[in-house]
Design brief:
The chain has 118 residues and is mostly beta strands. 0% of the residues lie in helices and 49% in strands. The strands form two sheets. Strands 2, 4, 5, 6, 9, 10 and 11 form a seven-stranded mixed β-sheet that branches. The protein has a four-stranded antiparallel β-sheet with strand order 1-3-8-7, with no helix packed on it. The chain starts with a strand and ends with a strand.
């Protein structure tokens, strides 16, 4: 059973940067695609970015393209989300999950809070 833990969130001014980490408990994490999602207060969870098992294929939500970058280091069982030029509308709890063969997401981490002040 893969367990995930996010870190790196915090309070930052608009235009600033943060780097989130998603660390897995087991090495089998390296076999899975991983996604980052966010949920703002009072809103539904939304997709942010994902990366395949090798790191060669990535996808982004339109709202973060050109500002966020997803990467992974399988030797450290970690997926990163580099967030630049942050905006107040990026404020949310950010969570990571692994993708099953059926295309669904599971093993959600507890999340890390990102707050961007204007």
């Amino acid at each position: 059973q893969v367990q995930l833990a996010e870190s790196g969130g915090g309070l930052v001014q608009a235009g600033g940067s943060l780097r989130l980490s998603c660390v897995a408990s087991v090495r089998t994490f390296n076999l899975y695609a991983v996604g980052w999602f966010r949920q703002a207060s009072g809103k539904e969870r939304e997709f942010v970015a994902n990366i395949d098992w090798s790191g060669a294929d990535t996808n982004y939500a339109d709202s973060v393209k050109g500002r966020f970058s997803i990467s992974r280091d399988n030797t450290k069982r970690t997926v990163f989300l580099q967030m630049n030029n942050l905006k107040p509308e990026d404020t949310a709890v950010y969570s990571c999950a692994i993708q099953t063969s059926a295309g669904t997401w599971r093993s959600w981490g507890p999340g890390t809070q990102v707050t961007v002040s204007s």
